[in-house]
Design a protein that fits this description.
13 strands, alpha/beta, 14 helices, 36% helix
Length: 436
């Protein structure tokens, strides 16, 4: 045992404030409420099911996370949300048509009490959304301060001891990092006060508000938000953990797990074509080219950090990688992802692999929201702040310090080692696996 890290106990209530009350959010909230009544199982959740080996030899044990570190209990979670549509979580869950009535009705009373606060919203960042449950703010600075008041009121009203904010709203249009506006907290605040709507996205206002209020912030979409130096400076200043971005649910999960097979087998890759169809609100927003570009940048980043052309030019020196998302309303939340993988082997002879993943977007995402919120709460109680790289396992485009040439770790199995070692360390055990 290593007694160096002291983790505060998970006493009191944990608030989880979700930005967006759509399909993913309501599936997450309904599942947690049903699980704590014993009416559903939180399958897919690492924090509820996974076991990690701690110790070696005679001292070796395989334990659930909660038996290694003090995780918040499902019974202690209190939900809140913001959304551009005013419907409560029950109405939103029914509208989403992800879950059947039998899986919603037993917790209807609890869901009806989760009423979205007015969203900080700019239609230019998500042109396909038309909700009117929106804050009337003169500037981005006013927007951030209104969100700070929301967080304060939520904590006070629900008598919370801790609170985590997680973005599960739609993908915003792409905002490139600009060192004139995004490099320092002072620059960021000036741009907010100047109401610079080009360089300050609404998501940045949520992140700023959360960090200012001491709440860990998780970016679940591929938006440029908390992955800028100004936010890292603010997280260091307020001693708050941050992570992101983009929940790794379907196709990219497959990619981050399958690409390592090619790498360890030393097979070549000439092309990887990925396409999706989905019809939920996410699909509607991504049907807008400017919003899709944000997602495309996130999805394309996975392969290049696993199969590096500079390490193996014969195998990965000329990969053609294409990603497409198509809005198709009849499928709603039931996404389908096709991957065509053109590989080559001995003496350069070509082969092909086809993957057809018929998945349910929100069913895969919901456990990620639970794991990320519980683990970020844990990280804060363990005194960790800034970028939480050990949570890369859950994310398509993990945060990293690109200003110093750092690369994200996208190999699923390396990410799992990082996750396990962090849990071990916070539990007082030795981090005893390495990433080669």
């Amino acid at each position: 045992m290593n007694e160096k890290i002291s983790v505060k106990p998970a006493d009191g209530k944990l608030g989880i404030l979700v930005v967006g009350c759509g399909a993913v959010s309501t599936t997450f909230m309904t599942g947690v409420l049903m699980a704590r009544k014993g009416l559903a199982k939180p399958i897919g959740s690492m924090t509820q099911y996974d076991k990690i080996r701690v110790g070696k030899g005679e001292n070796k044990k395989y334990l659930h996370y909660k038996d290694i570190v003090p995780l918040a209990k499902l019974d202690d979670i209190v939900f809140g949300t913001w959304d551009v549509y005013p419907q409560n979580a029950y109405q939103a869950a029914v509208y989403a048509e992800v879950l059947k009535a039998k899986d919603i009705e037993p917790v209807r009373d609890e869901l009806e009490k989760i009423v979205p606060m007015k969203a900080a919203f700019d239609k230019n960042y998500a042109k396909r959304l038309d909700g009117d449950n929106v804050k009337d703010c003169a500037t981005r600075w006013d927007m951030a301060n209104a969100l700070i008041e929301d967080i304060k009121n939520f904590k006070k009203t629900n008598n919370l001891s801790r609170c985590v904010v997680i973005w599960a709203a739609s993908t915003e249009i792409y905002v490139p990092y600009d060192e004139k506006y995004h490099n320092t907290v002072a620059q960021l605040e000036k741009a907010m006060k100047d109401d610079d709507r080009e360089h300050i996205a609404p998501s940045m206002c949520y992140a700023y508000a959360a960090l200012t209020e001491g709440c860990p912030f998780i970016m679940g979409a591929p938006c440029t938000c908390v992955d800028i130096p100004a936010m890292w400076e603010l997280a260091d200043k307020t001693k708050v953990p941050i992570c992101g971005k983009d929940f790794k649910t379907g196709q990219t999960l497959v990619k981050s797990g399958f690409a390592p097979i090619l790498k360890v087998r030393n097979l070549g890759l000439s092309g990887w074509f990925s396409t999706n169809i989905l019809g939920n609100r996410d699909g509607l927003v991504l049907d807008e080219p400017a919003n899709f570009h944000t997602k495309e940048v996130s999805k394309l980043s996975t392969l290049e950090t696993i199969l590096k052309k500079e390490d193996q030019p014969d195998l990965y020196g000329n990969i053609y990688h294409k990603v497409r998302i198509n809005y198709y309303p009849p499928r709603n939340d039931n996404k389908e992802g096709w991957d065509n993988i053109d590989i080559f082997g001995w003496m350069g002879y070509p082969m092909q692999i086809k993957i057809d993943f018929l998945c349910r977007d929100s069913i895969l995402a919901a456990p990620l929201l639970l794991d990320l919120t519980l683990l970020m709460d844990l990280a804060q109680r363990a005194g960790r702040y800034g970028i939480q790289r050990f949570l890369s396992f859950f994310l398509k485009s993990p945060m990293h310090d690109y200003t110093k040439g750092e690369e994200a770790v996208n190999n699923l199995f390396d990410q799992y080692v990082m996750l396990k070692n962090a849990i071990r360390e916070m539990g007082g055990y030795e981090a005893d696996e390495e990433i080669d």
